[in-house]
Design a protein that fits this description.
This protein has helices at residues 21-33, 48-55, 85-99, 118-130, 144-157, 180-187, 226-241, 246-257, 270-277, 286-293, 304-308, 311-314, and strands spanning 12-14, 38-40, 64-69, 104-109, 134-140, 162-168, 190-194, 261-265. The chain has 329 residues and is an alpha/beta fold.
């Protein structure tokens, strides 16, 4: 994971939807049988931590267990949220009780708190690492400049730095390619990606539901735009051509984009999880990747398009070879 020595599986299991203890345990069993070893949750995911704590009984150390802090513990109290020291302390202690463990392997700052100086957050996080309650740190949903500033402060002070980013990414939403992926390459950070199926849109459930069924989820077919339906049809067509499923095609796209990317599969049932795990066996041909790349209509924009060609006009007539990883991919 990033510049650490920690080994993590290519696909992470997201436990946000864990609600039923028995189904949660079955999904952990299936994920473990497939060789998975990273499970992600958060203090704000309702019963997820409780269910996960029960499912991991007797095998806690087999997994890299991650959770998040930052969202309010009490919706009626504004001081119960944020990335400040008090919320970190109280949220983490509550998470450890729910998860039935004395430490988490990876703790994420759940989202950006513009009211708390990032130096306070990094110092408080480092204290948790030194206390043995946390082993590694991650940044979720933070702007690239905030992560860069946090990294600079932590390195200067000798504190623990972030080793991973958690961000949304799928063929319909590629915004992270502008700043966050170049940041991860430069600072040698792992990137875990959530929402790989675009809230289920790219699974085809809303565009091509099974006969006699009503699509389930947060959306309805009429909520999707024409562009979203067209994207779903493209993924459905590719799945048929490759004799696989739309979910596997979408996940395989993320896996093929960079070895630095680790998609989080947030299944609600063992059948969905089994389907998602099959994405590791899908090898997308070049033409399929091109069709998927075109879905977002993505353009890096300024200043990235300008600087991607920088060597052509700063190196003169010479060709300079570099062994460094390019931030432009």
């Amino acid at each position: 994971m990033g510049s650490t020595g920690l080994r993590i599986s290519r696909l992470l299991l997201g436990a946000m939807t864990f609600a039923d203890p028995d189904e949660g345990e079955r999904m952990v069993d299936l994920y473990q049988e497939a060789g998975g070893d990273v499970i992600d949750t958060a203090s704000a995911y309702h019963d997820s931590e409780e269910v996960l704590g029960r499912a991991l009984k007797g095998r806690r150390d087999r997994f890299v267990l991650s959770t998040k802090f930052g969202l309010p513990r009490d919706p009626d109290h504004p001081g119960s949220g944020g990335a400040h020291r008090k919320n970190l302390t109280l949220s983490l202690d509550r998470s450890l009780r729910r998860l039935r463990t004395d430490h988490v392997d990876l703790l994420w700052v759940h989202t950006w708190d513009p009211h708390t100086p990032i130096a306070e957050t990094m110092r408080a996080l480092d204290d948790m690492v030194r206390a043995g309650k946390v082993l590694y740190l991650g940044a979720s949903n933070l702007p690239a400049w905030v992560v860069a500033r946090a990294d600079t402060i932590a390195r200067y002070e000798g504190w623990t730095t972030f080793s991973a980013l958690q961000v949304p990414y799928n063929p319909l939403h590629r915004d992270i390619e502008r700043e966050l992926l170049p940041l991860a390459r430069t600072l040698d950070m792992t990137v875990t990606t959530y929402n790989p199926l675009a809230t289920g849109i790219l699974s085809g459930r809303y565009t091509d539901p099974a006969p006699g069924t009503t699509p389930t989820g947060r959306l309805r077919p009429q909520d999707l735009s024409a562009r979203q339906h067209e994207a779903a049809r493209t993924v459905i067509d590719l799945a048929r051509e490759l004799d696989t499923t739309p979910a596997r095609v979408s996940l395989a796209w993320s896996l093929a984009r960079s070895p630095r990317l680790h998609p989080i599969i947030g299944a609600s049932t063992t059948d969905q999880l089994r389907d998602n795990l099959g994405s590791l066996e899908v090898d997308l041909p070049g033409q399929a990747m091109e069709r998927l790349n075109a879905l977002a209509g993505f353009e890096p924009g300024y200043p990235y398009e300008l600087n991607a060609s920088t060597p052509d006009w700063i190196d003169g007539d010479r060709t300079v070879r570099s062994l460094r990883e390019s931030p432009f991919g």
